[in-house]
Predict the 3D structure of the following.
Amino acid sequence: MKKIIMTALALAVVVLPHTVFGAGFGTGIKVSTLGPGVEIEGRMNDNLGLRANANYLPFSVSVSVDDIDYDADFSWKSGGAMVDFYPFSGIFRITGGLFYNGNDVDLSASPNKNVTIGDNTYTPAQIGSIDGSLDFNAIAPYAGFGWSGGKAESGNWTISFDAGVLFQGSPSVDTLSASGELAGSAAFNADLEKEKAEIEDEMEPFRYYPVLALTLSYFW
């Protein structure tokens, strides 16, 4: 499925401009909650348009899971192919699409006091540092709506706005390990498995990721 999405994106980049060249095709820059990015678009007729985009956004926040404060380094990487439907042949559009979703998060923590992991309490020396990573579904559907300002005609600048949701699925902690005295202990590793579940629960709100985007495009 990942290969299908990447192929669709490549075809959109190559074919879309030529397909809509007679009416003009747009290239743009955007800012969004998926990160800054680039976009190409073309309106096939009064009711149908196609778009492809790529986005990237790194940021860091602190995430608390029970007793432990993690430094969470987010790396939001995505590319989407979307179909726009203009029900009133105007500027309002309804959008659906699929994204290749490379969003992931690196986690690290170094407790400086006794903390509870799983069913037991551990000292900082026993734990050392904790490192892990989590990600989401590689293929994520998108649904939303928006407004495309201006006509898709050669020589026009347009500003468009989109609001929607990226359905990237529940987060999955791929790895979680510690470097302290109990590293490798079967009982401690069992508690780390429970900590994984706690982290996934804490990150669950990212399952439905809100997308707001503002795009400035020029039509050729």
The chain is about 20% helix and 55% strand. The two ends are 32 Å apart (CA to CA). Residues 107 and 212 are 26 Å apart (CA to CA). The longest strand covers residues 48-65.
